[in-house]
Write a structure and sequence with these properties.
By secondary structure, the chain is mainly alpha-helical. The protein is built from 3 helices and 2 strands; from the N terminus they run αββαα.
Length: 104
């Protein structure tokens, strides 16, 4: 699992580096939707920073949404209203099967 995490992190870092090299031009991001653009409501930044900031905001918003959804399940589990999984499913010990040895 650690090896997979390192590989994925390396690929993400490589992707971010290539994105930064390919998109170094400056863009103006305006937060004022009305056409006469006010300089007070806009920033000028490299395109790769705008893209990475948007991705980061999306990850934060998605994580927050999952956290809010999980709170309901956690509160039900704390109250004891969530039945135990082992009582509904027969769980075999690790490595045990219902088949005789040698059969597939």
């Amino acid at each position: 699992m650690k090896r997979l995490r390192k590989i994925l992190f390396g690929v993400a870092a490589l992707f971010a580096s290539l994105l930064a090299l390919a998109n170094r031009s400056f863009v103006t991001v305006s937060f004022d939707p009305i056409p006469p653009r006010s300089e007070a409501w806009s920033i000028e930044a490299p395109l790769f920073l705008v893209i990475l900031a948007a991705m980061f905001c999306g990850i934060l918003i998605g994580g927050f949404a999952v956290w809010l959804g999980q709170r309901r399940v956690d509160s039900i589990a704390r109250d004891g209203q969530l039945p135990a999984i082992n009582s509904r499913v027969n769980v075999a010990p690790h490595g045990a099967t219902d088949q005789p040895p040698g059969s597939f």
